[in-house]
Amino acid sequence: MDIWTCNHILKIPFSFLDSFMWTSVTYYVMGFAPAAGRFFSQFLAYFLTHQMAVAMFRLLGAILKTMVVANTFGMFSLLIVFLFGGFLIPRQDIKPWWIWGYWISPMMYSNNAISINEFLATRWASPNTDANIDAPTIGKAILKFKGYFGGQWGYWLSIGSMIGFIILFNILFLCALTFLSPGGSSNAVVSDDEDKKKSTDQEQMHQVPHGTNEAANRRTQTGMVLPFQPLSLSFNHMNYYVDMPALLLLKRGGRVIYAGQLGVQSRILVEYFEAIPGVPKIT
């Protein structure tokens, strides 16, 4: 657990750098408010959004264990977070029995922080001419139309909420590592006799000469990793037979002239070769 905590803390500078680079590349290119304070406010929102997403997926990985299940539920969590984030579906269009999903969605607070930071800028302070929306400026009218918070307090509320989600996800992550059983195949219960026998076998293996161990290690390093303990088998009084043909005629150089059972054709071949001067009797 301490290793995971230290690993998370050490990765914060990388998240800080990634968020800063992303904000630097996209902020002025996309035409956001040019004020430097707005730039750093959006950078803070991106940084906390990244930390919140990392903590959430780390929690899912600690709970779900296996890669397939974690990927499946991770994509489902992304769908829910974006669906109730207030961007795809405005707050006014969410049914009352689903509004709780809007308030617990981490992405909702990120969208609020980024939107408030932009639409409360000076260039959006022109008077609102739409009589259907009760808001003094165009920026606040857009925020109210989309269902976002309408004041600067909403930005800091969203920042505090994202920090709370980061702390909550990390605490649940540590609890999952502490109290949940690790993934993978469960260990079988081994009796005391089997445990003693295994210890004796291991001691005998350690007593094998050093050269044999080195050869075995080389074979283990270069061969296939087996999911079981390899064993050596030996056989006593084992007879091995090869079904040889009844007649085999070879030419000089090892070329086979005839290989098969004795019969009429084979007898003709035998008589033919025996008639050659210098060839001994074959049969």
Automatic annotation (TrEMBL):
Keywords: Membrane, Transmembrane, Transmembrane helix. Residues 194-204 have a biased composition (Basic and acidic residues). Its main location: membrane. Residues 4-119 form the ABC-2 type transporter transmembrane domain. Residues 190-211 are annotated as: Disordered. It comes from the Eukaryota. It is a multi-pass membrane protein. The chain crosses the membrane at residues 68-89, 153-180. One of its GO terms (molecular function) is ABC-type transporter activity. It is found in: Membrane. Pfam families: ABC2_membrane, PDR_assoc. Residues 124-190 form the Plant PDR ABC transporter associated domain. GO terms for cellular component: membrane. This is ABC-2 type transporter domain-containing protein. It comes from Panicum miliaceum (Proso millet).
